[in-house]
Amino acid sequence: MIVARLRRQLAAKARAWAAAEGVALPEALAVCAPPAHVKADVSLPWPLAVARTAKRNPLDLAKSLAVALSELPDVASASAAPPGFVNVAVKDAVLAANLKAVTLDPAGCGRDEEGAPARILVEFVSANPTGPLHMASGRGATLGDSLVRILRRLGRKADAEYYINDAGARVVLLGQSIKARYLEGKSQAAQVPEKGYHGEYLKDLAAAAPAEAASWSDERWGRYALEALLESHRRDMKAFEVSFDRWFRESELFASGAVEKTLAFLKSRGMVYEKADAVWLGTSGAEGSSDDKDRVLVKSDGKPTYFLPDIAYHLDKFERGYDRLIDIWGADHHGYVPRMKAAVAALGRPPESFHVIVHQLIHLFRGKQAVKMSKRAGTFIPLSEVVEEVGRDACRFFFALRTPDSHLNFDLELAKKQSSENPVYYVQYVHARVCAIFRKAGEAGLHAPGADLPLPDARRLAAPEERALMAKLAWFPEVLLDCERLLSPHPLANYLLELAGLFHPFYEKCPVVSAEDPAQGRARLLLCAGVRDVIREGLSLLGVSAPEQM
Q: How far apart are CA 483 and CA 487, in angstroms?
């Protein structure tokens, strides 16, 4: 695509310029979309990056660089701007050719042939199967699934995984909780443990238990509830259009001996020691460690802590051939990040091979009225209920709009509105409107359904509204690279909103079917096709539908 090609041309020309000027450019050269008030297609901050070390005025460097870049064949103009930017405008014919490329291969638009071939494993949701999935699970699911889709579109080898915590004391505690609900249903005296699970959902599961359940042990009850809740997680994720390449069980680690092997491996590397009859991971004093204190791996009673199987799980990921691990966790796991990073280092793996995305809390509103949630008290709002009320599309788009580290206010009433106030409706409506334009074009004989669209003619797409759309379409692949760099789909969601916003003035000022010149109308149809295809592809990467009628 044009921006990637232009980036390479600009970088090569700039390095030649830098050599002539006697300045050293950084290895990574950022290419930015200029702000809306700047009449350019690309903004380069490179002079600012070298001015201090070169002891040169950045604006003077920018003026010199602009002269050099103006010589490139795809560049229409290059000008310096304070305090040291170079703003580049590309030739209209180049934008028009890019538009045709988008419509010829929409599904390939965004593939990055220059990217590294590393294998990436993205682990997300991984909610303990002790209750239904809630809104935070939905936010994590959106982040993970959209990120995997985007990485794959870029050409990366990315897999998705759900880790099931089905071992340890939580199974027995869950069993005691549901057993109490079962006995209550039989009018027998029983009480849910104080630290147990108090949600009403356990009453329904207890009522559905078979007759022989009366003789079950606490662990058997726990297994029954865990498998039933896990199945509900699978249903919720399927309804949310989220798929996983593997559902990995913690119990597999214990059954395979991976936990003991991991402990032995850490011992062989001199990373553990014994104190007070317990086994500790000694990372607090290790060079480059991110943890501030040592952590217990095996308690004095000989039972492993949660930390040891977590380390074994991540070692297993590496041993399966993954070069890069991305974990997506909820806000309540923030304090766990330093110790897990320290554990990865203790395994002898490079720190940059492991990255954690911590997404913040969701505050649910109905208009201005807050909706309270508490998983432990059982008054949370299940994800399935929110999806049923507002739809999957609204949920996923709203979740994708914000950076993971920002708190999210989710307004149920806004998510249901069919108006421009609702961001997902705003974007989907543009797609549906373009589809309607094509139907009308067919009825008017301007364009036969399925027929090839014309070759681009920049002279017929010269209006400011038309050029703005072509320039925005050219940035689609770069937006996907931003999503990879930031490990978040929010640049894509906001890009689609901006693209939809640019289409409205075009629709008002540039008639398509009713254009006086049919050739002008067909050229605008090509532009409409580019908008339609990019919106459809972008929404698909976010797990959101692109309706043809609304």
A: 5
Tokens of 108: 């390939």
Spatial separation of the C-alpha atoms in residues 152 and 117, rounded to whole Å: 11
CATH topology for the 419-541 domain:
Isoleucyl-tRNA Synthetase; Domain 1 (1.10.730)
Buried b (16+ CB within 10 A) or exposed e, 383-413: bbebbeebbbbbbbbbbbbbebeeebebbbe
If one counts every other C-beta atom within 10 angstroms of the C-beta of residue 514, the result is: 9
What distances in angstroms separate CA 293 from CA 164, 182, 275, 290, 307, one per listed residue?
A: 27, 43, 14, 9, 14
Strand order in the sheet with 272-275: 272-275, 278-281, 295-298
Scanning the structure block, which residue is given the tokens 């254009």? 515
pLDDT by 10-residue block (mean), the chain, 550 residues: 82 94 88 87 93 92 96 95 95 92 86 78 95 93 98 96 93 95 92 90 94 94 97 97 98 96 96 94 70 89 95 98 97 89 93 95 90 60 92 97 95 94 97 97 90 84 94 94 96 97 96 92 95 98 97
Q: How many CB atoms lie under 10 A from the CB of residue 12?
A: 11
- Tokens standing for residue 159: 């897999």
Strands 362-366 and 369-371: antiparallel
CA-CA distances (angstroms) from residue 112 to 43, 304, 542? 21, 44, 18
d(CA 321, CA 121): 10
One-letter amino acid at 116 equals A
- φ/ψ of 510, rounded to 5, equals -125, 85
Structure tokens belonging to residue 365: 């509103």
Task: Give per-residue pLDDT as tens, 405-435.
Answer: 999 999 999 999 999 999 999 999 999 999 9
| Residues ≥6 apart with Cβ < 8 Å to 452 | none
Look-up of token digits 């501030």 = 292
* Whole-prediction pTM: 0.93
| Per-domain residue ranges of the chain | 2-90, 119-164+243-359, 419-541
Q: CA-CA distance, 232 to 238, in Å (whole number)? A: 10
Give the tokens for residue 322. Answer: 């993954």
Is there a contact between 195 and 173 (Cβ–Cβ < 8 Å)? yes
Strands 157-164 and 362-366: unpaired
Residue 529: burial class (beta carbons within 10 Å; 0-12, 13-18, 19+): buried
Which CATH fold topology does 2-90 show? Gyrase A; domain 2 (3.30.1360)
Could you tell me where the DSSP H helices lie in 191-285? 201-207, 218-239, 250-256, 258-268
- Residue 445: what are its φ and ψ, rounded to 5°? 75, 15
H-state helical runs in 55-123? 58-69, 92-104
CA 540 to chain centroid, in Å, comes to: 12
